[in-house]
Amino acid sequence: MRRVRLVVAAIGIAGGAVADARAFDVGQPLLWVPDLTVGVVMFVAGASLVVKVRGTGVLLTATGMAWFAGTVLPEATYWHRGVLVHLLVAYPGGRSVSRGGWLLVGLGYAAAVSSPIWRDQATSLVAGSVALGVSLAGVRRARKRGQRVRQVACQVGTGLAAVLLLAAGAGLVWPAEAVLPSLLAYEAALVVGVGILWAGLRAAGVTALTDLVVELGRTRSEPLRDVLADLLGDPAVRLGYWQASRAAYVDGGGVLSPPAAGRQTLTRVDREGHPFAALLHDAQWADSTIAEAVAAADRLTSAHAVLQASIRTRVADVSASRRRVQRAVDEERRRLERRLATTAESHLVGMSAELRRIPWHGDAHLARAVDQLERTLVDLHDAARGLYPRELADGLSWAVAALSSRCPVPVELSATHRRFDPGIETAVYYLCAEALTNVAKHGAASAVRIEVVVRLGALVVTVADDGVGGAAVADGSGIQGLMDRVESVGGTLRVDSEPGAGTTLAAGFPLGGQPR
Predict the structure, then answer these.
(1) Residue ranges per domain, the chain?
(2) What is the pLDDT of residues 347-364, one digit of tens each?
(3) How far, in Å, CA of 296 to CA of 290, rounded?
């Protein structure tokens, strides 16, 4: 491995010396010394990382090659900037793991091969401003996510972009005098930036581990193997767990075995001194860092799984309790409605019949009593219907049809004749009743459409009118009460009520084995 590093560094230094000898006169040290220094620093840094972090090492080396190519070929002057953008976006692993990252890399290469962009000070100023904005956004995003290694790369990008902006601005003001100072400042910024990136990776074991675990914490809803593959930029990653019966680490593809040679290596993770898991991954990542990251991620994932299981259990308990309470309320309403129908209402009906049999011969007092008794019967019947809809005994479609017949606004009804869980039927009844009441009182509608159908394993209820709209969903409102009732039986309710566009209530109730 040491030989590989020495060969890469030697090739870079020799190639740079040849390029500078061809491009500059030895009596121009202000030109060839900084130029040679930049390329040599890139080659040496890349050579030292090419084994430990191969992707970054290769990109640093490629940046040095592009730099020296620009020394001897005028059309290649800015090629190194494309590779540099790739390096910064993909740092620390050498691969970009997002579509947005690849887009930035592509734009960087496109700008690098477009010499007119950088040769003109005005367009260079615009390009530098864009680069500065993107870099600053990257710094904020990395800081927010706790990615310290990525933050370093974005800060380096910010510094380089700032130098380019200053150079472009100076070039506009002093076209001739600013050329050499701007070049020297840019070369110094490159040396410093490469040094920061190199130092960050040379001592990035603990920091990279922290970033990796933080990122795993952010994306823990995904399978651990997929997250590791994205973060490491290695789609061939395999994560297996120890099977004592086979005395091997196994994943969905079979046994994980360490390769005899090549780019992959097998990192084992122990738990309390016993084999637990193994990761087959790109050899560029340090074994200790990966092992610690997988172990930490496993602990984090396990804790998260326990917490999620507890939350799911509590949510299920609350939902079940809510359904039980609603069923109890509906049952009590049904009992009260039956009691009214079989006692008070039947007694009043009998009293009305007795009064009508009395020969009252135009007695005004008795006539008023009979009339008052009839109104009381109507009020009592309405109150009983409010407690529990008696029409549901004959089916949901019959009950909704009865509601529609009492609505002063014409109703177009389409309803299935199937029967459903009593809780669902009650919820649908009150949904339609509340909607029709709102139409009659506030909607100013000329027509209403009600649809009660079974679609894709769910009971779908839609009540739509062509009124003024603007229905408010607020705490204590009738619609909020409907939402609570619908959700208590596992359903969902959506309200669309734009002012002037009418109101639509759409509810869905998952059925499963409910219909009968």
Answers:
(1) 2-203, 223-310, 390-510
(2) 666 676 766 667 656 667
(3) 10
